[in-house]
Amino acid sequence: MTNAENHPDLSRRLVAGADDAPAILAPDRPTLTHGGLRELITATANQLHALGIGRNDRVAIVLPNGPEMATAFVAVVATASTAPLNPAYRADELDFYLTDIGAKAILVGADEAGPAVVVAERLGIGVLRLIVPAGAPAGTFTIEGKPVGPRAAPEMAEDSDIALLLHTSGTTSRPKLVPLSHANVAASAGHIGATLGLGAHDRCLNIMPLFHIHGLIAAVLSSLASGGSIYCTPGFNALRFFQWLGDAKPSWYTAVPTMHQAILPRAARNEEVLAAAALRFIRSSSASLPAQVMAELEKTFGCPVIESYGMTEAAHQMASNRLPPGQRKPGSVGASAGPEVAVMAPEGKLLDAGETGEIVIRGPNVTSGYEKNPDANVTAFAHGWFHTGDQGVLDADGYLRVTGRLKEIINRGGEKISPLEVDDVLMDHPAVAQVVTFAMPHDKLGEEVAAAVVLREGMAASESDIRTYAATRLADFKVPRKVLILDEIPKGATGKLQRIGLAAKLGL
Question: Number of folded domains in the chain?
Answer without folding.
Answer: 3
